[in-house]
Prior knowledge:
By secondary structure, this protein is α+β, with helices and mostly antiparallel strands. The chain is about 40% helix and about 30% strand.
Amino acid sequence: MTGDGALVPDPSAVLASAANASALAGDRDEVAGVGVDVVCVSKMSRLVSEGGLAFLQRCWTSHELAEAGDDPERLATRWATKEAVMKCLGVGISDLDPRDIEIVSQKSGAPSVVLRGSAAGRAQSLGISKFHVSATHESGWAAAIAVASASTEHQDSKVAIQREDGS
């Protein structure tokens, strides 16, 4: 109970209820990683301006560039999402090619993740079966959160993984 008489639920009871509901629903996924990142849009704008096409091609896939163009807000949002996914994988930018994590827009506009190369290998080694991502930009900042799920059942991966041959 708070000072004003409002009832506050016991956090452990709330978590237990959520876990029970998840189990009853047949959900066999568990959280394997969580990542969050924030990017300053003006800094991204400066990097794009100074680095030009070489910078863009070093950090984003051709598909990402087709969707975002050279719009600093869109690029910053995708970069924040890539960084959040890296944190789920327990790696940093020096550990993999940023193009191995591709952020694509679904028809609804919601972001989704496609992994390749070392990022795909890392996800598989951790048993990650899917990512849940959300991203936004507002007032000069871009932010993203990623939650990686690992299936407790042996089933095919739901993470979009693309082989080097493009298949």
